[in-house]
Every structure is written in C-alpha cells, then in structure tokens.
Amino acid sequence: TYNFAAGPAVMPEPVINQIQRELPSLGGSGMSITEISHRSAAFTDIIERAEADLRALMDIPDDYAVLWMQGGGTGQFAAAPLNLATTHQRIALLDSGHWAVRAGDEATSLGFKVDVVGSTKADHYHTLPELAHPLTAGTYDYLHITTNNTIEGTAFHQLPATNGTTLVGDMSSNILAERYNVRDFGLIFAGAQKNLGPAGVTIVIVRRDLVHQVSHLPSMLNYQLFMDKHSLYNTPPVFAIYACGLVLQWLREQGGVDEMERRNREKSGRLYDFLDESKLFYNPVTSNARSLTNVPFMTGDADLDAQVIAACQAAGLMNLKGHRSVGGLRASLYNALPLAAVDALIDCLYHFEKDHA
Ligand code: PLP
C-alpha cells in the first residue's frame, strides 16, 4: 500500500518500525514515551536532539528561535499577527489559494488590517501571484506567503522581493522538502503532519529580535513565553515531538534537505512528465509554479475521476481523491513517499488510460 494523503501523511517506514519497537519501553526504562514526564531527562534529550537536528537540516542560525507549539498551521494564522503585527497592525498577503485566504481571514477577524497585494484567484490559482506594486517600507509588519499551496499544487521556488518588509512563510506542506534560506524569513511555521511526523505539534522558527512581550496574548500563542521557557511552559505533545525527532534523524541519515529536494524533484518530475504526455489526464498548473509535494490532476470528467480513484485504490494506491475545491485527484509526494510509489501510480494511470482510450 502506498499512501498519497495530503496530511496527516505517510511517515518513513523505519521510523514507524522504531516507534513500534520502542512504544512499550523507551530506552529499556519499562515506561512508554506516552507515559513519561516532559520534564524527565529522557524527554529533555529527545527535544534537545530534535531541535539540534532541525537546526542542522535547515541551517537555522542562532539568532532564530525554534519553538514547538500546538494549534497547527491554523493556530499560527492567529499567533503570527498577534506576536509580530504590533507596530502597524497591518499585514500584506499574497493570495495564492485556500490557505493564504484562511490566514488572511484569521488576521482580519482579530482586528488586523490585511492588504491583498497580489492574487491569482481570477486564474483559479494555476499560477503564483506577484506583488502588484513594490511594498513600501514601513507600511506593513510583514508579508505573508504560503510557500507551498497544498490544495492548488503550486510552490514559491523563488521568493518575492520584499523591499525590507519581514517575510512570514507558511511552510506547512514543504518544510524540509525543498531548500529555503531561513534568513530570508522573519518567521516560518509548519504543522508537523505532512513532512515531519504525526499531527499535534507545530514548528515555529522565528528571528529572535522580532519576538517581544505582547500584552493580552493567550499563553499558548505567546512566542516570548515559549522562547523563554524553551517550549516547556506547559505540557507539550510529548509523543508527537518524539516521533518528529525520529523523522529528523532519518532525514539526516538520508542526506538532508538537498537530497530530499532532489528526490522530490524526481518524483514530481516523473508524474508531471506523464501527465503532460497523457491524452486523458492533465495538471492545470503553470510549469514554473508547480509544487514538488502536491500534484493535483484530473480528466475533466468527475465520474471518470471517481473511476480512476477506485482503480488506484484497488491497486493499493490510497488517498488520491482531490480536495473538494479543486476536484479530480491529488497525489501528495512528501519526503517519506518512495519513488516506487510514484512509479506504481503512473503505471496504474497508464493502464487506465489505455483501457479507456
Ligand atoms: N497551511 C497549509 C499550507 C496547509 O496545507 C494546512 C493544512 O493542510 C494548514 C495551513 C492548516 O494546518 P492545520 O490543519 O495544522 O491547522
């Protein structure tokens, strides 16, 4: 079985096996990871090693803090403006699809002014937005982008020119799957459940000088508090952090982010090549905006799409139904999905096409 789910998503098989082995007794302690204190020496080792591995993998400089928070990407749609938009209470947003809109709506509902400074909505998000005008320095607390649009299947492989405005990146669906320079961002956040581990923990990477005391902030969204308390202000999601730690070790053993990007380019490239050649299937995204991790495609006929999904499922290719707003199919090709899965998918699509020619 291959799992093409958009998230929660496939995890590396050796990591799942290790979790299974270690679940009854962590390090011979006779206690499970789900039973130990977040203040124990064993968990301190786990969270410190996970942070060190994440720093090494993403080349995170010391003047950036790594926070392990809860509330998912959605929690960060609130936390980012509440912590960072304190000077102008105004943020700029590039509208590249569903999750960018959700981020903007959350900030608006909290009383911030959100200016959409570029949008490809009229183009059904098949391309990426550019800034309609250069940003004027000193106008916005930050510019929000979604580095990878999980639903629409686009990704910023090049970042917009911000003219000195702080850049905030929602990296939920391509963190560690593609190389970005952390220094280009003031804040990066990502829910763990796509490229990193199980749901329940959210990675926040924030430049320390942007973090400051903000009054009237819920503790669970407070960057200063989490930074001061090393993410242990309250009980963190112990199991999720442990599992992420194992995935981070696995990523380092595999060759790190550059190797992941190479594999993801190969996986997505094979699938895009097949789709571009196909007479039955197509991917609607402009080629230079295509995501390495989420590939939507369709036949243009909803009934036929449903038959394709059923045929794939019968072949052990799971969770290929597209998001309801786009329809068709979507193959998510995160780090833990092997190349063999993509080959199996292409094979299934090829035979379906041949049978329906
Ligand atoms: N941002 C992006 C790009 C996403 O793909 C998702 C979820 O799929 C979210 C944010 C929301 O994340 P969560 O469900 O962790 O709140």
TrEMBL record:
Binding of L-glutamate occurs at 39
What domain of life? Answer: Bacteria
* MF annotations from Gene Ontology: O-phospho-L-serine:2-oxoglutarate aminotransferase activity; pyridoxal phosphate binding
**Intracellular or extracellular location(s):** Cytoplasm
| Top EC class of this enzyme | transferase
SUPFAM superfamilies, alphabetized: PLP-dependent transferases
Task: Tell me where it mainly resides.
Answer: cytoplasm
Name the EC number(s): 2.6.1.52
Q: Which cofactor does it need?
A: pyridoxal 5'-phosphate
Keywords in alphabetical order, please.
Amino-acid biosynthesis, Aminotransferase, Cytoplasm, Pyridoxal phosphate, Serine biosynthesis, Transferase
**Residue list for modification N6-(pyridoxal phosphate)lysine:** 194
Q: Does the keyword Transcription apply?
A: no
Residue ranges occupied by any Aminotransferase class V domain in the UniProt entry:
2-345
Q: In which pathway does it act?
A: Amino-acid biosynthesis; L-serine biosynthesis; L-serine from 3-phospho-D-glycerate: step 2/3
For this record, an example GO cellular component is: cytoplasm
> Which residues take part in binding pyridoxal 5'-phosphate?
73-74, 99, 150, 170, 193, 234-235
Tell me the InterPro entries matching this sequence: Aminotrans_V_dom (IPR000192), Aminotrans_V_PyrdxlP_BS (IPR020578), Pser_aminoTfrase (IPR022278), PyrdxlP-dep_Trfase (IPR015424), PyrdxlP-dep_Trfase_major (IPR015421), PyrdxlP-dep_Trfase_small (IPR015422)
| Protein's GO biological process | L-serine biosynthetic process
Quote the record's cofactor note: Binds 1 pyridoxal phosphate per subunit.
What family classification does the UniProt entry report for this protein?
Answer: Belongs to the class-V pyridoxal-phosphate-dependent aminotransferase family. SerC subfamily.
Q: What does this protein do?
A: Catalyzes the reversible conversion of 3-phosphohydroxypyruvate to phosphoserine and of 3-hydroxy-2-oxo-4-phosphonooxybutanoate to phosphohydroxythreonine.
The record describes its quaternary structure and partners as: Homodimer.
| UniProt name for this protein | Phosphoserine aminotransferase
Organism of derivation:
Lacticaseibacillus pantheris DSM 15945 = JCM 12539 = NBRC 106106
> What gene does the UniProt entry assign to this protein?
serC
